[in-house]
Please model this.
Amino acid sequence: MATTALMLTMPPTGWRFALQVSDEISGERGGQVRVKQLGPDLWAARYSSNQMGQDMSRRLKAHIGGLMVQRTTFLAWDPGGQFPIADPKGTKLVSPASVLINSVNADAQRMSLKGLPANYVLTAGDYLAFTYGTAGARALHQIAPPTTTVTAVGGITPEFYVVPRIRVGWSPNLAVVLERPFCEMLVLPGSLSAEEGPNTASIAFDALQVIP
Model:
């Protein structure tokens, strides 16, 4: 079972976390631009560590190597987006487990939440996650423009825009994670690298979201 153990054992000190859009763009003689989606939009990451002792480095390399060899996954988040911008330590979210999906618009680009503290604020750039579908897929979304901020009046937000699009399988009242929202990722083969010296080492690797 995928866990957050790797992220908690190796808190990254450097990272790249971004949505990888799988589009093919082609131009036509009349000047029109055609866009064709080749696959799902997935979160991609590169994590790197600071200098650490050799013993810790060996344990981490074994952990990451094991994930690669066994083709197993881990739960990962954007280290720069672990909490909502207006609640940077998560202290205002007194009942995290009470946050639920309220609605999803037919365009699959907008959604609303309920079960938030009164007047709780969500901002473009905040992440949210939930588990959906019979296979237990993990969705990770980021609030995006044209939404700037939304306020939970009476604990319920108006609809706001998210990326990527919301996939089929969601349902009302699914629990939503706002603190360290995560997705399921696979370590990309061959991406593990280590800079080692006599006493210290640093590690880096790439990962890509998987959808069961």
About this structure: The mean pLDDT is 91. Residues 54-70 form the longest helix (17 residues). The CA atoms of residues 23 and 37 lie 4 Å apart. The chain has two domains: 5-77+184-209, 96-181.
